């Protein structure tokens, strides 16, 4: 009898622990922060995007089908090349041309500002209106070659504003 009681207590404890863990995670994606910001129509926020960081994770969650205007200001720099704005520049050295395939978006300029929502990458540049096809966290990426982010410097400021739903410039490419 004592043994049955002991086993019951032991496994009930484990069950309770698992149940607590499950319900604690039930409202979130596993491993994701719980404090995502979802902009209401008309709201905006400004994020800093660093040139030497590949994945600049924002705390914004974009909503499928909503429209977001993104305006990037400032200049950032790849190595010792001329600083550029969020539109970046065409790679002009041999190494840059060879390294095109190492960029997150091969056909876009070096140091162009990119956004990623889920797995989808989008070229943003200095001004873009994005209508995501899936909801997800907004991540910004400088379009530089993988392994070559360390020599980048400075940062951009990106303002993200949620627009009214009917916007003619629909552009999740
Ligand atoms: Ca670089």
Describe this structure in words.
With 173 residues, this protein is α+β, with helices and mostly antiparallel strands. The protein has 2 domains: 1-28; 31-163, Galactose-binding lectin (Jelly Rolls), CATH 2.60.120. Helices cover 17% and strands 32% of the residues. It contains 2 helices and 9 strands, in the order H-E-E-E-E-H-E-E-E-E-E. It has helices at 2-25, 94-98, and strands at 44-50, 56-62, 67-73, 76-78, 113-117, 120-123, 127-130, 136-142, 152-163. The strands form 2 sheets. Strands 1, 3, 4, 7 and 9 form a 5-stranded antiparallel β-sheet that branches. Strands 2-8-5-6 form a 4-stranded antiparallel β-sheet, with no helix packed on it. A hairpin with a 2-residue loop joins strand 5 (113-117) and strand 6. The longest helix is centred in the first third of the chain and has 24 residues, at 2-25. It starts with a helix and ends in a 10-residue tail after the last strand. Residues 78-79, 144, 148-149, 151-152 line the site of calcium ion.
Q: End-to-end span in angstroms?
A: 67 Å
Structural class, judged by helices and strands? Answer: alpha+beta
CATH class annotation of the largest domain: Mainly Beta
Topology as a string of helices (H) and strands (E): HEEEEHEEEEE
Enumerate how many helices there are, as a single number: 2
Count the beta strands. 9
CATH topology (level 3) name of the largest domain: Jelly Rolls
Give me the CATH superfamily of the largest domain.
Galactose-binding lectin
Cα radius of gyration in angstroms: 22 Å
| Tally of separate domains | 2
What is the strand content?
25-35%
